[in-house]
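Workshop exercise sheet. Pairs work together: one partner reads the sequence aloud, the other fills in the structure field after running the prediction. Swap roles for the next sheet.
Pair: D.N. / O.F.
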Amino acid sequence: MASSLHQNPTILKPQPCLTPKPPTATRWGYVRVRCGGPRSNRGPLVKGRILSIEAIQAIQTLKRLHRTNPPNLSQLLSNTLTRLIKFDLVATLRELLRQQQCSLALRVFSTLRSEYGADLSLYAEMVQALANSGMIEDVDRLILDLEGGNGIQCDDPKGLLSLIKAVIGAQSRESTVRIYGLMKRSGWGSVVEPDEYVVKVLVNGLKSLGEEELAHQLQDESDRWGDTDQEMLLLLLPLLNSSSMKNLLRPFSKDKSSSSAEDGTACPICQATPAIPFVALPCQHRYCYYCLRIRCAAAASLRCSRCSEPVVAMQRRIGVSTE
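Structure field:
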């Protein structure tokens, strides 16, 4: 045993006393991390474009069905679209047009038109997108469907103008002529007063498409409407209080080329100072515009009230009259 102890001297050595060290507080450091860069605060890619979750899911479903082309494609597309409200349908349609998915957009537009109806502005957006994609036949088919539906409502001049511009921009002669026919059928030009700018755009478009005769017909109809307004005004002028009208217009119609004594010359018809001075031709005697215009319209041949010379025309007074 002594030999074994001698061989293991470490057993006889005193072991150091191991006392536990008191716990020390651990200090944690941190490093500031900046996310993003100069483009981190940018806005949406397309300002004002808001898509709901339903609209996004519908777009994804439509594109997947269009890609896989299952046997019951029409039924699946109908089930996907009919569960959307009008706002989501319009948002889906415009997003598909933005992505140039015109075939799918036509299906969405058909559902929107059958469920809720479509205004002329949406028709204009569809025509413009189809024309940009070279689908001119679909443009003609779309306007043909418009003819078979409720037609064109002329109470939306802004939408009507957008549609006319879109069809003319698509260089579709057939659709442009058809739109003009729909406008006539809805009372435009006969019951509804034609807008001058709409007439100008449509006339120029018809001429550019080779429809010269139809463009002249449209311009003549617009001019006749203006002549009707003038005739109505002439009928109403005698009913107006001419003295009140003259007093209202007098500050704006002073004859700057005449002296003050000549400006005070009375009209030989109403015996008042002319509010809008006109002269009878060829005698150059001074009259009120309303007095002379009403007399000329009422009588086939009119003679001057001062000199009894026949009056052949009238013009705005710019010189000295002959008294």
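Discussion prompt: Residues 39-47, 253-264, 319-323 have pLDDT under 50 and may be disordered. What would you look at next?
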